[in-house]
Amino acid sequence: MIYSKLALDALKKGDMKNFKKNYSLALHEDNDDYLYSLAEELYGYGITDRSKKIYLHLLKKYPDEDEIRTNLADIAIGDGKNDLALNYLSQVKKTSPAYVKSLMVAADLYQTQGLPEISKQKLIEAHQIAPGENVIVFALAELYYGSGDFTKSIPLYINLLKKGILNYSSVNLVERIGMAYANAGQFDHAIGYLKQIKPAQMSSNIKFELAFTYLQLHDYENAETVFKDLRNTDSQYATLYPYLGEALEKQHHNDDALKVYQEGLGVDQYNEKLWVKAADVSLKLNLQKQAEKYFIRAHDIAPDDISIALKYSNLLLDQKRYQDNIHFLNQYVQTNDLDPQIYWNLAISYQNTDDYQLASDYYQSAEPFFFDNSNFLKQAALFFREAGKPKETKKLLKQYVHLVPTDQEMIEMLNEYH
Known about the structure:
Largest sheet: 2 strands, antiparallel
Number of helices: 25
Structural class: mainly alpha
CATH class of one domain: Mainly Alpha
Shape: elongated
Keywords: Repeat, TPR repeat
CATH topology of one domain: Serine Threonine Protein Phosphatase 5, Tetratricopeptide repeat
GO biological process, one term: transcription by RNA polymerase III
Organism: Philodulcilactobacillus myokoensis
CATH architecture of one domain: Alpha Horseshoe
Distance between the termini: 113 Å
InterPro entries: ARM_TT21_4th, Tfc4/TFIIIC-102/Sfc4, TPR-like_helical_dom_sf, TPR_rpt
Protein name: Tetratricopeptide repeat protein 21A/21B fourth ARM domain-containing protein
């Protein structure tokens, strides 16, 4: 009578009474090979306490069997007993047939401890010893992928794919390779893999990555098609809306893009980037009041985002609302790491409100940052000329003519100061 088999049969039927009975009998009556197989089966079912009992029983009889130690270490990790796991693993010598397996278990241990670099070292060592072991190749590929080192994960996944392995541990390798190429910015390669995935097997993340890849390749029609498919199947996937809108804008479908951004804001009203995109496309459609509302909403969500502040400031300048612009930008003047564009925008505003002293101060503050910007140089030079400051005017004109040697009017103006 093989009690190990009877115990497993009872377990599969959910007959715990007979399972416990036959498990106890197996410990006393079955040979060690059957017991070892029972322990492995029980571990697979997640009944680690009983599999551990068998392994400990066998380790007393076979103290040189390092395979048992690695199994016990694996169970200890699952129980949160990392020191015990390390103790078992430290006893496995490099000459042991179980050494590669011990490296795999150690890699798992260090990963759970938040030490991915040590985990990677263990897996690399295991791969060097047994480069053909699929489980090691996959584990190392997953570690690289999970840590964002996509270019190193790709050849490992391809290694498995060349062996005819399309799925490993419930992971679609074609998908992984495509996603890895996309995340590595190699969009031409990514598209070739992502397109191979059957529509029924495409998750929302894969659809997004495929559409985003089309977008990076400037294939806006296909990007639009896939983003819309994603929207139809998962309308709460908030990340799609900025990019679907972008694909539409690139095709000059600005009205449709605005509707998409508005729809996205219904899904995620706290996404300041969506508010900005809605504002930007509103300006393209000459909906300035609407754009202003959107910029203000974006600024309310992310008041420290200077790029948003500058977009709103530029709108105020375009509308010649110079006093409003001064009031708005003054909140940033005392902050550290001030964007120099704020100096320029304030200079324009003070100039147009006839505060020439402050306009002069801000033009001079902006000058070092825009000394290679011909638009700034021309504007500032004309201001200083009007303000009666020849030294500053000549300096700016000289630099402007150096950058734009074909502007005859400004050359003649410069000659006045010689």
